[in-house]
Design goal:
Length: 224
């Protein structure tokens, strides 16, 4: 049976699909159990019956998102390492950044980048036990692998510098992904040259910006 048909027939799948969409559109805090139930065409008690409440439903939905995100990035990193071993050439920092950023712009799982960014921002601004535990369990291993890869690609970075660059990279991506300004301030400031609808352009600009930020201080710089 097709996924769409299964969601229509199974109340549990309808609830999952509705919550996933609402979390992406409104954020976790602004989505109520009643909102989810109405969108799924079930009564509010069904959310607790099938999932034990909104928080546990969120853990299941975001857990899936985080696992797919981590797997996607680790597979990308593995391909880079394989190519480096075959060619004898070190991994380029641009390839590391491209794969990491690309995880937020996947066409095969529409909206997943927004969901991922929504959870990470929530945990940065208002962490809870379940968000912190979920991120630590599902993403910390992947993050450490990328930090190590950054340090290897840019030998001038020590562990501290690589961690800072990784942290800034994630923050830059998050704020770019979740912009939902209906008036589009960037479009106004750029006199229409920039638009939040141009996802591919956003991805390209993010990669270019972050890659330049991954360069070590120039020789003669006060920090060099």
């Amino acid at each position: 049976m097709a996924t769409r048909e299964r969601e229509q027939d199974d109340p549990r799948e309808r609830i999952r699909a509705a919550a996933r969409q609402l979390f992406a559109e409104r954020g976790f805090e602004s989505t109520t159990t009643r909102d989810i139930a109405q969108a799924a065409h079930v009564n509010s008690a069904s959310v607790s019956y099938y999932f034990g409440g909104k928080d546990k439903l969120a853990v299941e939905i975001f857990g899936d998102v985080l696992r797919r995100s981590a797997r996607y990035r680790m597979e990308h990193l593995a391909r880079l390492k394989t190519r480096a071993a075959e060619t004898g050439r070190p991994i380029d920092i641009a390839d590391i950044v491209s794969g990491f950023v690309g995880g937020y712009f996947r066409n095969d799982v529409p909206g997943e980048g927004v969901l991922l960014a929504t959870l990470l921002i929530k945990n940065r601004l208002a962490p809870t036990d379940w968000t912190a535990a979920l991120i630590e369990r599902e993403l910390d291993g992947m993050a450490r692998a990328y930090i190590e890869a950054i340090q290897q690609a840019v030998p001038a970075f020590d562990k501290q510098a690589a961690n800072w660059r990784y942290n800034f990279m994630v923050g830059c991506i998050l704020i770019s992904i979740v912009q939902k300004d209906a008036a589009s301030r960037i479009q106004r400031l750029s006199d229409g040259l920039c638009s939040l609808d141009e996802q591919e352009r956003i991805r390209e600009e993010l990669i270019d910006f972050i890659v330049h930020g991954m360069h070590p201080p120039a020789e003669g710089d006060a920090r060099a």
